[in-house]
């Protein structure tokens, strides 16, 4: 007999809300977003007179001047770096209309800005025909152009991560960091996590040298999942309670945007620490072809290609095809990484008002490398006079393996109805298959021995998921106040079938390992069918009132999760399936003031929630985690530049955080956590050739009311109120500089260098042992061989952890500490034609 156990909804999941939820889902699954007639609005565009604004943009590089003007004027300006390269602008001071100011800025450049709708402009040569010319750049999109396009250098000016609209970073009342494509290339980022190494508030290697998943701990919060990764505006949809997690190679990305703090008002379930938005490479409307090859230490070797360009003579259809083959022996003995990936993309401009981008991402990882930990006794401290090698592998070469196949297909559709309304619909389907066999260590066999206990876990998982997000954006004026209103509804559904096995193996000597004891004593099998369904509706208003910027948002979510044990267990007293239904209303509000001197102080409040798909030892689902944040900060952008300096103070309170010990198959609620701190960030283009990034993070995080049950007797507790969670360093700092020479003797040479400091953290929740701080140095050197006649050829050498510092990245507990990455060096040759 099958018994169904249902968790009652404490938030009153009523029949009325169920009807509303189903109605929203029906609307979301239509193929286009319908727009009804809204009340008439007072539109500046229809008054017949163009509003003038006062500008004070200093003379300087044309690209910087135009970016600054687009931000101040609230327009989208599509241009290519080639158009503005080497050009200077006389600037503009005084009160002008948009067209008048652009004419001043472009004086003597041989370029003109052509208006498409009063708020979108295209830059083109004066000699071209007055007929409509489509943009020849990858900065596409009526509402999101400057927030998604490629850019030269490290200084992004806009982002869509905080508002789902193209919003200037200076005018965003929350802390946002952006990693550009050029920064990823200069620093030799091999994973998404590595790409964020120089961003404040982010611990990118909580699990050490593993590359299997992109773990990101933000503002002290690390739940052991990668649930805070988004791709092209949509949640990655991996299952954080299993081994099925989507991963994207950074070679396929245009930029990485990082939003700090809770953000459920636009995205639904999410971590309170923040989220990471990946933007994939999009088709270009000018021919682009690039191939590259990489070789490096630890047996690294790989090749990649990136081809793009228009398909038709009118440049209304463009493609991009990016591919990669990469493999490495890794720093751990008997472990390999191997990846094959392909991303075809097609963009179609049906008209100047309608565009569609079709995307696919196919990835096969036959070898997923190492993912394990070893005890603090033997890593942080010597054990019997010895330390465990950073290359030590505690598993069995004939057993361990990890393979992952993932395919995703989706599209991004956008249509502009008129000067007011723009509709967008984003969709993605994900299919994933994971097979895993892992032998892992847990604790020493005796208090004085050199041998580690070993256990076995096997996994066979299949994941299917899809997500759709519909948005209607309206831009209008009420008097002199500008509103950008975003109305949206999204729906996501995920199903994961998991089959797990467990067992035990003979111990292994951690200091003198001998392999071959591969006999497994099987403990048993488990099989689960896990489902998640989320429906959300949201409303946001971005208000521009003179120099004030206000943001207001509300969202209602309905979330259902279920966890069905497909193997009947007679000893289990409460059925084989657990259902959990939740509703949640979240909000956000922010205010910012723009001073003429470039200063912009702000304050914001935001909320998050994340339904727990985890169950406790009795099989009951844990309550959702809820997060709230207050943040105050100051941003500064010197007039006439794209340099940006940000200082932010924050406090986050989270309830019902879930955690588990690695050897357990259930989770525990640990009460409440409070995180507060300071983040400083600087993005500086000091000269045309000199770029500098700097950051500092202070995080004070502690259990504000917490009880953790012990493993042996769940009714007993450990009181750790006031203690800090593990994997949460108190101090972090980084500095990176890159210089490009252009003198006769050194023309074409680039030098880069950086330093990263991570302060101490705690190795256990009881705060009895510290993980020591560490400092790492990175370096890069590149040369443009076109300077000596090899046009389009570039070489680059990257070294991470240059001094080969041996360190422990962090510990999740005293039995699971994670070795940091040793020195790795990679040389890359690329050819663009």
Q: Could you walk me through the main structural features you see in this protein, from its secondary elements to its overall organization?
A:
7% of the residues lie in helices and 50% in strands. The protein is mainly β and 833 residues long. The chain has 2 domains: 4-31 and 276-402 and 423-832, Maltoporin, Chain A; 51-133, Phage tail protein beta-alpha-beta fold (3-Layer(bab) Sandwich), CATH 3.55.50.30. The longest helix is centred in the first third of the chain and has 14 residues, at 15-28.
What descriptors fit this protein?
single chain; 833 residues; mainly beta; Maltoporin, Chain A; Phage tail protein beta-alpha-beta fold; 22-stranded antiparallel β-barrel; 5-stranded mixed beta sheet; 8 helices; 47 strands; 50% strand; globular; disordered N terminus
Morphology: globular
As a percent range, the share of helical residues equals: under 10%
What value does the average pLDDT take?
Answer: 85
Broad structural category: mainly beta
Strand content: over 45%
CATH class of the largest domain: Mainly Beta
């Amino acid at each position: 007999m099958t018994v169904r156990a249902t968790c009652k909804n404490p938030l009153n999941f009523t029949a009325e809300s169920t009807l509303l939820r189903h109605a929203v889902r029906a609307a979301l699954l239509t193929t286009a977003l319908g727009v009804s007639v809204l009340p008439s609005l007072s539109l500046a565009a229809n008054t017949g007179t163009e509003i003038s604004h006062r500008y004070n943009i200093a003379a300087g590089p044309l690209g910087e001047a135009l970016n600054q003007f687009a931000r101040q004027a609230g327009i989208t300006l599509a241009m290519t770096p080639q158009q503005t390269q080497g050009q200077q602008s006389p600037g503009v001071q005084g009160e002008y209309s948009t067209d008048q100011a652009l004419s001043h800025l472009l004086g003597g450049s041989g370029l003109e800005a052509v208006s498409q709708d009063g708020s979108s402009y295209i830059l083109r040569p004066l000699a071209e025909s007055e007929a409509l010319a489509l943009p020849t750049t990858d900065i596409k999109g009526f509402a999101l152009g400057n927030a998604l396009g490629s850019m030269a250098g490290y200084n992004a000016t806009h982002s869509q991560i905080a508002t789902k609209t193209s919003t200037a970073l200076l005018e965003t009342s929350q802390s946002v960091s952006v990693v550009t494509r050029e920064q990823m290339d200069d620093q030799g980022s091999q994973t998404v996590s590595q790409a964020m190494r120089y961003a404040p508030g982010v611990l990118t290697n909580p699990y050490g040298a593993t590359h299997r998943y992109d773990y990101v701990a933000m503002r002290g919060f690390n739940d052991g999942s990668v649930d805070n990764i988004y791709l092209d505006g949509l949640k990655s949809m991996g299952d954080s309670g299993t081994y099925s997690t989507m991963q994207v190679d950074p070679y396929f990305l245009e930029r990485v945007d990082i939003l700090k703090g809770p953000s459920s008002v636009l995205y639904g379930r999410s971590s309170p620490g923040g989220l990471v938005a990946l933007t994939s490479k999009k088709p270009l409307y000018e021919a682009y072809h690039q191939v590259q090859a990489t070789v490096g230490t630890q047996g690294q070797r790989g090749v990649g290609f990136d081809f793009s360009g228009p398909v038709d003579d009118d440049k209304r259809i463009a493609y991009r095809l990016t591919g990669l083959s990469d493999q490495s022996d890794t720093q751990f003995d008997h472990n390999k990484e191997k990846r094959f990936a392909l991303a075809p993309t097609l963009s179609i401009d049906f008209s100047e008002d309608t565009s569609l981008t079709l995307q696919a991402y196919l990835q096969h990882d036959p070898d997923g490398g190492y993912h394990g930990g070893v005890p603090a006794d033997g890593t942080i401290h010597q054990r019997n006079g010895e330390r465990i090698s950073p290359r030590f592998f505690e598993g069995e070469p004939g057993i361990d393996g990890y393979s992952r196949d993932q395919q995703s297909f989706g599209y991004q559709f956008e249509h502009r109805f008129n000067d007011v309304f723009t509709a967008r619909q984003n969709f993605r389907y994900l299919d994933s298959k994971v097979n895993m066999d892992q032998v892992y260590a847990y604790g020493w066999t005796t208090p004085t021995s050199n041998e580690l206990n070993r256990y076995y876990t096997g996994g066979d998982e299949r994941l299917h998921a899809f997500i759709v997000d519909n948005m209607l954006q309206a831009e209008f004026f009420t008097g002199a106040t500008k509103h950008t209103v975003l109305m949206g509804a999204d729906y996501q559904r995920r199903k994961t079938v998991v089959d797990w096995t467990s067992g035990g193996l003979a111990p292994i000597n951690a200091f003198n390992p001998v392999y071959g004891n591969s006999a497994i004593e099987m403990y048993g099998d488990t099989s689960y069918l896990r489902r998640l369904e989320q429906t959300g509706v949201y409303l946001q208003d971005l208000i521009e009132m003179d120099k004030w910027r206000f943001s207001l948002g509300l969202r209602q979510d309905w979330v259902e999760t279920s966890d069905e044990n497909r193997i009947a267990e007679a000893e289990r007293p409460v059925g084989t399936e657990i259902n959990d239904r939740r509703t949640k209303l979240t909000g956000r509000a922010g205010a910012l003031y723009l001073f003429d001197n470039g200063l912009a102080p702000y304050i914001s409040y935001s909320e998050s929630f994340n339904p727990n798909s985890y169950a406790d030892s009795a099989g009951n689902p844990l309550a959702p985690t809820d997060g709230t944040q207050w943040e105050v900060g100051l941003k500064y952008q010197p007039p006439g530049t794209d340099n940006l300096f940000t200082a932010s103070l924050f406090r986050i309170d989270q309830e019902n955080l879930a955690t588990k010990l690695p050897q357990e198959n259930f989770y525990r609620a640990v009460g409440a956590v409070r995180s507060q701190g300071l983040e400083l960030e600087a993005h500086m283009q000091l000269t045309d050739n000199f770029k500098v990034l700097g950051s500092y993070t202070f995080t004070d995080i502690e259990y504000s009311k917490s009880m953790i049950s012990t493993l042996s007797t769940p009714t007993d507790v450990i009181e750790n109120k006031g203690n800090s969670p593990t994997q949460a360093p108190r101090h972090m700092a980084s500095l990176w500089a890159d210089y490009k020479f252009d003198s006769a003797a050194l023309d074409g040479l680039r030098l880069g260098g950086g330093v990263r400091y991570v302060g101490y953290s705690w190795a256990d929740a009881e705060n009895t042992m510290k993980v020591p701080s560490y400092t790492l140095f990175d370096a890069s050197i590149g040369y443009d061989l076109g300077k000596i006649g090899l046009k389009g050829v570039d070489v680059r050498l990257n070294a991470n952890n240059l001094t080969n510092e041996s360190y422990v990245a962090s510990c999740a507990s005293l039995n699971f500490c994670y070795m940091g990455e040793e020195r790795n060096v990679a040389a890359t040759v690329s050819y663009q034609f």
